[in-house]
Specification:
The chain is α/β, with parallel strands linked by helices and 171 residues long. It is 50% helix and 9% strand. Among the domains are: 45-133, 3-Layer(aba) Sandwich (Rossmann fold), CATH 3.40.50.2300; 145-171.
Amino acid sequence: MIDVKSRSIFTKSGVISAAAFILVMAAFMVPVSAHGVHVTTSETNIVIADNSTGKLARSVVDEMGVDVTVYKFASADDVQHELEHALEDPNKKVLAVAYTDTVQNFIDQHPEVSSRIVVANANKNSIQQGLTKLNIAGATSTGFITPLLSGLLIGLVFGLGVGAVWMKRRL
């Protein structure tokens, strides 16, 4: 017959192990801000849009080739919450093409962010002017000549080095 030893999990070492496990799990939990989850965590340039202005804003941003993310917000409360996060981040730039009354009221209450938050009408020219005013127009566009010249310079330096080593070995 096989002798099976029964162990209870309620022994002193079992309780200590369970308590240690619970403490470790609690230590690894990430706290969530009490006033809600931040939508645009790492984005520095955003456009506030809604369902009717989102496609237009996205097409203008794509046409200009700038590094801007267009977010469609569902309510003025969500926009207010996002703008409060812009107060804490001095690098965040916001262009609002929707919920303009909410954004303008926020700018009136916090004039220190007026250079980083711009209100624009929901048309192509106004969005382009707003992006230019925020100094993010053409931020990712480097053109064709810069990468070409960089590649040629790197190739020339590498080629001269390899050629010198190769010629030295042949002599």
